[in-house]
Design brief:
11 helices; alpha/beta; four-stranded mixed sheet; nine-stranded mixed sheet; UDP-N-acetylmuramoyl-L-alanine:D-glutamate ligase
Length: about 325
């Protein structure tokens, strides 16, 4: 079973904030609200258009920063207006950008998103410069990863880059959290380096190379057998399922959804902060669930990310639920 020597922040009082390194993607989201989501070959007349900062890695970095983390982002953007704007946005959130590389002659990542009336969405991503993030880029940030409390990753950058970051973190006993999205089958060698995996009900099957599954518990058990220590499956309005040495369901916060874009990213980013602050699995999942619940009531990706006081306010209102 995967293991690490990480220590939560409450056991290291020399640090004011949890130090979190996010290795991942940065995109510009082009979002269209639509009365229905189109089927193949169908044209649907949509409504409002929104241009917003996104990318799973960037979303998670912003979520972690707003939740109280000291965040460093490792990524790659193009030498275009989207890349420049994204980097400025990171800095405005207090995120360290010394390891955000600009790739000459390359476009920054772009995501085309359609959002239906119930908040469901379909997304197509042109990775652009995200596909140019290399293991060498990660190695340049190795000293920052080594001194972090947590390394947080996704799968919108090359898998060899993700693997190298996990290796560095494991060498230094740093907590590793992987949000396996977009889902793809992952080798056992990589899974052994993951302390916490945060898939949704579709991704939990994809990581194993299964077409689909209605039994998420069976999939989680298979992932733990492959080497993952803790599996946290997000289930939307059904809450989240924790599968570790024990199994526990955590109910969702009831809200009226507007846009589910980035809800999983908000969950992962805020979970990383809560866990490294010393919260137990259930408490950290509840904190992250509150943040995700707030995010789905707002439009956009990073524009939907709540701040720490908003999360704590919702938790305080729902105490006892």
């Amino acid at each position: 079973m995967a293991s690490c020597r990480w220590r939560p922040l409450e056991e290291n009082r020399l640090m004011a904030k949890p130090k979190i390194v996010v290795v991942g993607s940065s995109n510009t989201d082009m979002v269209v609200s639509s009365p229905t989501l189109p089927r193949p070959g169908e044209t649907v007349l949509g409504g409002e258009f929104l241009l917003a900062a996104g990318g799973k890695g960037a979303n998670q970095a912003v979520a972690a920063a707003r939740a109280g983390g000291d965040v460093t982002f490792v990524g790659c953007v193009g030498d275009d207006v989207f890349g420049e704007k994204a980097t400025r946005g990171f800095r405005s959130e207090g995120i360290h950008t010394e390891f955000v590389r600009i790739e000459p002659g390359c476009a920054s990542g772009v995501a085309l998103i359609m959002v239906g009336p119930g908040g469901e969405n379909i997304i197509s991503v042109a990775p652009g410069a995200n596909a140019r993030l290399t293991p060498g880029d990660v190695e340049k940030a190795s000293h920052v990863i080594a001194s972090a409390h947590c390394l947080l990753l996704q799968l919108e950058v090359p898998l060899e880059t993700v693997a190298r970051a996990l290796e560095i973190a494991r060498e230094h006993g740093v907590l590793t959290i992987l949000n396996p999205a977009p889902a793809l089958k992952l080798p056992r060698e990589l899974l052994k380096l993951v302390d916490v995996l945060t898939p949704n009900r579709t991704e939990v099957a994809g990581v194993l190379g299964w077409d689909r599954t209605s039994d998420v518990r069976k999939a989680a058990a298979a992932l733990r057998k492959a080497g993952v220590r803790d599996v946290i499956i997000t289930l939307g309005s059904e809450g989240a399922l924790i599968v570790s040495t024990t199994e526990e369901s955590v109910p969702a916060f009831r809200v009226k959804p507007v846009d589910a874009v980035a809800a999983g990213d908000v969950f992962s980013g805020t979970f990383a902060v809560a866990r490294t602050e010393g919260k137990g699995l259930r408490e950290a999942v509840r904190f992250a669930s509150a943040a995700a619940a707030i995010s789905v009531t707002r439009k956009g990706a990073q524009s939907s990310v709540p701040k720490r006081d908003e999360i704590e306010e919702l938790l305080a209102r729902k105490t006892g639920n």
